[in-house]
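Posting here for the record, re: 4'-deoxy-4'-aminopyridoxal-5'-phosphate.
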Amino acid sequence: MSLAVFDRSKDRVAAAKQYMPGGVSSHFRYGVSPTPLVFERAEGVYLHDIDGNRLIDYYLALGPMILGHMPADVIGAAKAQLDRGILYGGQSELEFAAAKLVCEMVPCAERVRFCASGTEADQLALRLSRAATGRDVIVKFEGHYHGWMDSVLWSAAPTGNAMGPESGPVPVAGSAGQDALAGRNIEVLSWNRPQQVIDRLARGDVAAVLMEAAMCNSGAIMPQPGYLEAAREACTRNGTILIFDEVITGFRVGPGGAQKRLGVTPDLAVFAKAIANGFAVAALAGRSDLMDQLAGGNIVHGGTYNAQAVNMAATVATLKRLSTPGVYDKMEIRGRRLMEGLAETFKDAGVPATVTGFPQIFHVGLGLTEPPVNYRDCLRVDRPGYIRLATLLLQRGVRALERGAWFLSTEHDDAIVDTTIAAMRDALAEWVKTR
Ligand code: PMP
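Prediction output follows.
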């Protein structure tokens, strides 16, 4: 097998540093192994880079491309809208249709407000929660990511002693330059520990509990049986708003997101990524009595690009396809086969690893022998080892995230799954040899 090389990407990113910090446009695209890649096109499950490599894509742009790259229906809808205008600074029938689809698909969605990124929609959720309750405190969880703003980038990926004990985690700033005061009303708990939520909420001063309903930014960890129900019950009892951040799980783990699949309905939920298959769309959805406070009152939510018409055309086309019977069933079967195939490959190689999560977004925990339950378990993953494995896999034509997450699309068919498992087998053999 000839191994892919990435020399041109390396050179071009190095040259671009003259104009762009690090040659990239996001913190999370910098410093990846063996180099940030430069792409020239994509179709189906494939990415084509400037070195001439065709890579099977499990990155899926960190989640959005649920229908794969270049789905004809979504592209067709966006192209048709381009002939009718891009941005109106007003409403369109497309946005009404998109909002209706979200309300039909998602259990908590009685109203929808569109935004341009998940980060913004999370901010709106917090502002609305504080305004609606008259309270200041927001509870979030270690390892959960809700965008890069000062107000929420606390303990998203903390390490070391600064975290404090699991029984009383200390909020850790995620970035240099972060306003320390922006964290004064954020409290961090350990996720999947029902008693922590119950005890904290009992004080009656928490505006909202914000969580990924299944934790997909650190590992892909399911809530323990009864955990979401306990959080739901504690929120209801104490007048606290429950927000599910479904930026990853929304329209990915099922048409109704994690809330439908796991059977617990929040008051508000945040969506982005798979809602528009790569177009810049996010949404806050939720209970009408809360959401309608955004209408005509004093809660400000702006955004020049909110509900941009081409993006809305793509949203309608994406959600229509995702409403088609059988779409998720197929992904479910193939994703499960891939998860099982990878787990077997690790077992055969004698390398401990867990493969956990949903068939449409799962996580490989290299070095773990038990499925992780919360963020602190994820810290035991062999990170340098997995980065090396992901690099070996990339050289064999498969691109998956260095942090262990795998995203699946409707286009990853049985043959692609087989090719992927074979590539992993080969990569792992090399990994073991050179360990
Ligand atoms: N919430 C979650 C759960 C996310 O995974 C992300 C992005 N990875 C965000 C919020 C922020 O979304 P965006 O990158 O669109 O701002």
